[in-house]
Structures are given as structure tokens and as C-alpha cells.
Amino acid sequence: MATILIVEDEKPINELIRRSLQTVGHRCVSVYDGQAAVDELAQNKYDLLLLDIMLPKMGGYEVFERIRGIPTIILTARDGLSDRVKGLTMGADDYITKPFEMLELLARVDAVLRRTRRERTGESFELDGMRIDFGSRQIYCDQQPIEYTPREFELLETLVRNRNIALSREKLLELAWGYDYEGDTRTVDVHIQRLRKKFGLEDRIKTVYKLGYRLEV
Question: Which residues lie below 8 Å from residue 11, measured CB to CB, with a gap of 6+?
């Protein structure tokens, strides 16, 4: 099971989430403001972060910008498209709006943990000076480590494992975001542009007209 940090300022909701996750075997720690979350993450390691956006002392988006690399599910009462796109394009692994059923949250937590905990030992991939080490989840360009978000890694891995195959935006959402993710396909376009620029793949990730994308190798 996983060690999960719950960052939610409404104590009844925080407690309900904690009890529900502990019931299925997870270890949970609760904090109630953004600064406390940053302090806790600086001292201890977590497998997953459940992060509310509207927090005292420091907002959830600011917290997320400071703690790159931790799988994160955003919890918020905001359900507008712009808010969903902002959270996901920043690299969040999933986004769930309040009110939500605990069974839905548990399913999403399970899906994110399965994606981020898959064994990738002993595998690597190299292309044009870029090297991906799947075992350590490290990406290098010209032998220099490159920072990335969990979502960027999942999308890049999906393209690599399906290289030379045209994938629709819907299929990329299914494979990289998870089968239970319901999102706008424009999110894929945003992430593809970031991958092209960050890893120098402008000539490798091709746009397939009226379909999606293909990594040409």
C-alpha cells in the first residue's frame, strides 16, 4: 500500500478521506494548509499527494509548483474547464471536483498508483541524444538530467513504447492518463508541445492529420 499526504483545509473532508484510504490499507498523513504541506514534503517521502487548491497560507497551485515529481491528484470545488486544464497541464496526474463519492476517489487513487508504480527495471531508450532510463525514471539530454512532470514522463513513455504508430488523442489519454480519465483532448496537444520543446523532439513527434501523434524513429 502507499503513503499518502492529504492537503485539505476542511477538516471533516480531510478526516473522511483519511479514514477511507486507511480502510483499504494506505498510510495517511493530514495537513490543513499549503505551507504545512510544503514543510511536510521537505521532510518526508510520499507516494501520492491529494491536494486541494483553495488553501490558507499558500494556494494549491503554488504548492504544486514547489514539489515537482510527486504523483498528485488535485481536489477542488472549481469545475471550470480552465481550472482543469491548468492543473493537468502543470503535471497533475488527475483532477477530481467536489463533491465526490469516496468510491470514485479510491478508484482514482488506485489508478494513479498503478501507473506510477509499474516496474520498469533494466529498460532504457535512446534517440538523438536523449536517453530514458525507465528503471530510475530519469531522462537525459546530451548526458544532462532533465526535469519533467509525472504526466510528461507517462506521455513520453507511451509514445516510445508505441513508436512509429499513429495514436489518436483519445488513445493517448487512455494510455498515458489512465482508462478512467475523462478529459479534454486539447490537454494532449498542450503536453505534446511541451515534450517537443523540452526534449528537442520537434522533428520526431509528428502530427497525424485529424487523428493525433506519432513518434517517428
Answer: 32
Model confidence over 89-101: pLDDT tens digits?
A: 778 888 888 888 8
Cell 480531510 belongs to 14
The phi-psi region of residue 122 (left if phi > 0; otherwise alpha if psi is between -120 and 50; otherwise beta) is: left
State the first-to-last Cα distance of the chain, in angstroms, to the nearest integer. 38
Contact, 149 vs 124, CB < 8 A? no
Residue holding cell 509528428?
Answer: 206
Query: Nearest-CA neighbor of 155 among 192, 122, 180, 199?
Result: 192
> Whole-prediction pTM value?
0.57
Encode pLDDT of 148-183 as tens digits: 988 899 899 889 888 888 889 988 887 887 655 566
Select from 3.40.830.10, 3.40.50.2300, 3.30.70.270, 3.40.50.970 the CATH code of 3-116: 3.40.50.2300
**Contact criterion met (CB below 8 Å) for 58 and 78:** no
